[in-house]
Amino acid sequence: MTHAEHPVLATEGLTIRFGGHVAVNDVTCAFHRGTLTAIVGPNGAGKTTYFNLISGQLKATGGRVFVNGEDVTRFPAPRRTERGIGRAFQLTNLFPNLSVLENVRLAVQARSAHGFSLFSMASRHVELIEQAEHVLARVGLLDRAGAVAATLSHGNKRKLEVGMMLALERDILMFDEPTAGMSVDEAPVILDLIRQIKADTSKTILLVEHKMDVIRSLADRIIVLHNGYLVADGAPEEVMSSPIVQEAYLGTGVADHV
Ligand SMILES: Nc1ncnc2c1ncn2[C@@H]1O[C@H](COP(=O)(O)OP(=O)(O)OP(=O)(O)O)[C@@H](O)[C@H]1O
Predict the structure, then answer these.
(1) What is the CB < 6 Å shell around ligand 1?
(2) What count of other Cβ atoms lies within 10 Å of the Cβ of residue 245?
(3) Neighbours of 5 (CB within 10 A)
(4) What angle do CA 114, 119, 120 make, to 5 degrees?
(5) What is the phi/psi pair of residue 146, to 5°?
(6) How confident is the model at residue 254 (pLDDT cuts 50, 70, 90)?
(7) What is the fold of 1-84+171-258?
(8) How many A from CA of 42 to the centre of ligand 1?
(9) Ligand 1 atom, smallest distance to 41 CA
(10) Are 56 and 80 within 8 A, CB to CB?
(11) pLDDT tens-digit map of 148-205
(12) Which end of the chain is flanked by fewer CB atoms within 10 Å, N or C?
């Protein structure tokens, strides 16, 4: 197989056991450039755990993870980031005492660490700030650039997390319920941003999401996890009308919610 034929991201038989409980069970799935895949399933289905196994926050009990055909299963999270995996964490990755701008500048700097020398530091500093400001404009936080991160509203903290992920310029972008806890006027900023990122067809986007309207408007494909198993995979309308999904959701009374 040539390099070009590899999916950007793939999992093969990915499994994790917590004691007797198998949270992700033998999940084989491939993700391709220029696509947005929504990962849905009832509470406790294994969605976040699947993300943690892909990004390296959790170590698999079995199975493998590939990025551009390379087996990264044994790589720790930072090395997977180097290989192209970007993830917006839920409020765990911010520097609370630094300003919004400083948070993003650090992410920009982490990306462009190569070739950073004392000699060029002053001009690089201006460039890094400009890049950070550009990211803040994209996530709608430019007017809060000077604010201390800890003082932001919940919704703005979530925007900042997305900004930090964008600043790293990875090819694979993973969003875990990006608008959870956001107000009705905050959520559209993030959804429009995901739409814009998707329009840049070089990216591969994975989105864990419960809201059906968000899934309908963004996803090219839906995969469904249930009790750790991948139980459905396909085009949104096809998956939503499949008997297994109807049964899984109708049974739990969350058909319209997913
Ligand atoms: N570190 C852990 N130790 C033990 N059990 C865990 C751990 N992480 C997750 N689990 C269990 O694995 C299962 C899957 O959890 P996970 O958070 O991945 O589900 P989810 O589909 O993301 O749910 P939600 O929609 O509620 O976020 C749950 O039963 C959960 O209790």
Answers:
(1) 18, 23, 41, 43-49
(2) 22
(3) 7
(4) 60
(5) -85, -5
(6) very low
(7) Rossmann fold (3.40.50)
(8) 11
(9) 21
(10) yes
(11) 999 999 889 989 999 999 999 999 999 999 888 888 888 898 899 899 999 988 999 9
(12) N
What DSSP letter does each residue of 87-130 carry, written as one string? EE-SSSS--TTSBHHHHHHHHHHHHT-TT--GGGHHHHHHHHHH
pLDDT digits (tens, 9 = 90+) for 97-112: 999 999 999 999 888 7
Which atom of ligand 1 lies closest to the CA of 24? 14
184 C-alpha vs ligand 1 centroid, how far in Å? 27
Give the distance (Å) from ligand 1 centre to CA of residue 209: 15
Residue nearest to atom 28 of ligand 1 (CA): 44
Residues 45 and 73: their CA atoms lie apart, in Å, by 22
pLDDT confidence band for 124 (50 / 70 / 90): confident
Q: What is the pLDDT of residues 39-53, one digit of tens each?
A: 999 889 999 999 999
Q: How far is the CA of 43 from the centre of ligand 1 (A)?
A: 8
Q: How far apart are alpha carbons 131 and 91 in whole angstroms?
A: 22
**Given the structure tokens 């090819």, which residue do they identify?**
171
pTM of the model: 0.88
